[in-house]
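Components:
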Amino acid sequence: MQRIAVVPGSFDPVTLGHLDVISRAAGLYDELHVLVVHNPSKVALLPIAERVSLLEQSIRDAGIGGKVVVASWSVGLLVDYATDVGASVLVKGIRSQVDVAYETPMAIVNRHLAGVETVFMLPDPAHAHVSSSLVRQVSSLGGDVSPYVPGAVARFLQRS
Ligand code: PNS
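Structure:
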């Protein structure tokens, strides 16, 4: 049986912490879907299509192997996408107790809704302080975000 997992998130923009989780999850599953999901509770920086494109470039540039699909999802439940592609697992990066508190109810609801399990992965400590919201703030104030994001994202933010 194929082991298929989804790594969902806003990816606004993808960070080195995300890429670490994606790379390690790609090694654990036969097929990995990196899914850009619209999060209505956040003010977006980048359009969804741009986030998908930056994820594709970053995954390619990092030489992440295996079957990795980048897609987006804006209508309906996340577990509907997972069920459609035959995925039984969601992979989430967990940096702190704050992330545990945020993710736990969603993990329980997603399992109740569709029997989809959530696997929490600890990011490399080098990236534990990195978040997309921090990157958005530093970038909007003219700071250098290149230590926190893949090269493709740093170049894109410098140009815009
Ligand atoms: O990167 P983020 O913003 O922390 O990602 C959060 C996200 C998009 C994964 C989360 O908001 C989510 O799972 N949204 C899907 C909506 C859904 O299915 N909700 C019902 C069950 S929790």
